[in-house]
Design goal:
Helix content: 25-40%
Number of domains: 1
Strand order of the largest sheet: 4-5-3-2-1-11-12
Strand content: 15-25%
Order of helices and strands: EHEHEEEEEHHHHEEEEEH
CATH class: Alpha Beta
Largest sheet: 7 strands, mixed
Distance between the termini: 37 Å
Shape: globular
Length: about 280
Amino acid sequence: MNKDKRKLDLVVLSDLHLGTYGCQSEAIYEYLQDIDPKILVLNGDIIDIWSFDKKYFPEFHIRVIQKILKMASKGTKVYYLLGNHDEAIRRYADFELGNIKLCNKLVLNLDGKKTWIFHGDIFDLSIQHTKFLAKLGGKGYDLLILLNAIINKFCDRFGFEKFSLSKKIKESIKQAVKYINDFEQTAIEHAIDQGYDQVICGHLHSPVIRTAQIENKKVVYLNSGDWVENCSALEYSNSEWVLYKHPISNKKKKTVSHNFENSFHINIPNTQALYEDIVFDSGYR
């Protein structure tokens, strides 16, 4: 194995959104080439089935999947935790093949600290109660990212600094800030109630590591961010967490399309059973 790769105990990635125009697939591939983790956690929204179009799956999106499979074949334990954008395969939760396992959540003991990892969409009421509108909003987000890419090409050409439209919109809308705060607080409260020392989510596209306290109880809340806007990951080594942010390359992306059959039947677990499985460890399968 390449000695130049960074040895890590654990890496958490989420919200790659492979199969969409916003996915920074080259950056993901570069990052995976640079690391050698014992455990790789893919914390939801890895393949974006909500927005999946069999006419669009570029070369580097394929390479990312191939790289993950190669890492698993070389000894990395890969956990694929399912999110809302890849919920179509939730019916296969707990399926295991070699070093790859699909599941809804993961609990690890990291140097004596009980760590709860899950995507986080189960706490998103906008998805649980208005799924159609959430999917419609997802399409709008894809269009916003595409528009942002076009604008940034002009910025790059004329020497202006690149920026994120979606970040600017989120930061300027008080309701979006409240939504993020409510989501994080809900995760923190449940983690403390269930006796966890650390809780790790994705979903928000908002990378962070912070310690929260309720009365005399503390918990570390972490969010791995995304690979659409932030290109971020959580890295754990030598008993410490680091929030990694990958530099964005200005290289022109290749778009070699591949065709896939899309004729499978979707049978998604009901929300109540999924919630109990993730939060209360009910044993749902």
